[in-house]
Design brief:
single chain; mainly beta; three-stranded antiparallel sheet
């Protein structure tokens, strides 16, 4: 039995800021599943069960995170 296709776009943008004495600050934004495409789980594969062939789950939608990194 075949399940649904899989497609996902992840995006990351960051900016580095130089500081005195070889220190650095990095601001970062990351988006996972940036286009917010629905990703269904695999169908039930056990013959004889009520969920055989049924898709009963889906993955998370878009996730966005912000971050700051300080290097010294």
């Amino acid at each position: 039995m075949r399940g649904p296709g899989f497609s996902r776009v992840d995006v990351s943008l960051f900016k580095n800021f130089a500081m005195p004495r070889q220190q650095q600050i990095q601001l970062r934004i990351e988006a996972f599943n940036a286009l917010n495409q629905v990703r269904f789980g695999q169908p039930g594969g056990t013959i004889g069960t009520p969920t055989f062939g049924a898709i009963t789950s889906a993955e998370d939608g878009r996730i966005v995170q912000l971050g700051i990194k300080y290097s010294f």
